[in-house]
Structures are given as C-alpha cells and as structure tokens.
Amino acid sequence: MFTGIVKEIGFIKSVRGHGDGRVFEITAKTPGINVDNSIAVNGTCLTVTSRRGRSFTAEAMRETLLKTNLSFLKTGDPVNLERAISLQELLGGHIVQGHIDAIGRVTKIRKLKTSLLVTISFQAKFRKYLIPVGSVTVDGVSLTTARLRATSFDVAIIPYTMEHTIFHRYKAGTRVNLEFDVLGKYVEQLLKHSVQLQ
Q: How does 12-34 read in b/e, with b if 16+ C-beta sit within 10 Å?
C-alpha cells in the first residue's frame, strides 16, 4: 500500500529481459529499500529482488509491461519511487495500491504563474472512476483533478512536485501510468452485485 507521495527520483541503471518480463536495476538513495519489500516505480507496485550499494533490482512480468509505461523505460531514464507505507506514517496523499489501471497520455502543458496545468487523456471507459476535485494517481503521484472531461482531465502541478518527481520531464505525448481511486472501484462492484441479487 502506498500514499502517492513520491520520496525520490531514481534512475534506470540497466534493463534486461527475463523470460517474457524484464528486470530493472534502479539507483536510489532512499534508505530501507530491502529485498522482498514492495516499491512503487512510476506508481507500479514491484518487489525488490536484490539490493547492492545504491541500487536495487525489481522484475516486471509481461502483464505488468502490457499495462504500464515500464515497457518503455530504458537505461538512464528517471522514475518516481515510493516505498510501501508503514502504520506509523502519515497518509499524505490517498490510498494507492500500485495496481495500474491504464496508460494515459499528456496532451497539453500550460505554464501558469506558480504552477503547471497538465492535461492527460485516457480511454472513455475509465471516466466513471473520476470525479471533479477527486483523487487520481499519475506515475505514482497522488493528485487532484482540476478539470474533468469525457476523455481527459487536468492536474495542477506545484513547483515542489515538479522538482521532486519526473513531472518536469513531461511533454506532449508522454505516456503516464494511471491508477484510479480504489474506493470508487469497490463501490462499483458492490452496486453491480447488489443489482444482480435483486
């Protein structure tokens, strides 16, 4: 479980194939990243498989590569990193599972006086999981929808978030991982099953 508060920008040190998946070696300064730990890489929950010095490895299976932007990562690319939360930590963002629902695409970036307004497109079938001024996770970052349309939404990015995440590297066309609010998905399932039982 995560909160969507990115702790560090890591860098892809190497990528190698392993069966139909890939093993990523990632450099990170954050202490306490240990073997068997869960870690969110661009919002995708992976398991740390080894640790050496300032780098760790994590493997992404074929299904994960198909659903996320991890399949496009190459050596030198920066990634957002967040360790799994403990019960002693503040829930600064919202409840994030690290289970990516879709790949979105940055379509527009507008500079405001003190922030950026980023427009991200998504498939229409996911619209039901978004609400105005609701939570959404973009590449592992907990954000609030500023404007919402049928197939796109806007998020405002403050300077701190730009500096401490990979948002400063975004441009039109950038693919981003999207995770929609898990509470909405559970409500949908409960309502669907309650209707079926009637």
A: bbebeeeeeebbbbbbbeeeebe
Q: Is the pLDDT of residue 188 over 70?
A: yes
What is the enclosing helix (H) or strand (E) of 190?
helix 182-197
* Cα dihedral 27, 3, 117, 129 sign: positive
Provide CB contacts within 8 A for 197, sequence distance 6+: none
CA distance 37 to 45: 10
Query: Could you tell me the pTM of the whole model?
Result: 0.90
Digit-coded pLDDT (tens) for 88-114: 666 777 888 999 999 999 999 999 988
Q: Which residue has the higher pLDDT, 185 or 26?
A: 26
Hey, what amino acid is at 153? Answer: F
Residues written for the chain: 198
User: Which run of H or E residues covers position 8?
Assistant: strand 8-18
Write out the two tokens for 89. 């930590």
d(CA 98, CA 46) in angstroms, rounded, equals 8
Region 71-95: mean pLDDT is 87
Q: Is the pLDDT of residue 160 over 80?
A: yes
* Selection from 93, 106, 84, 98 nearest residue 166 by Cα: 106
Indicate the SS3 state at residue 25: strand
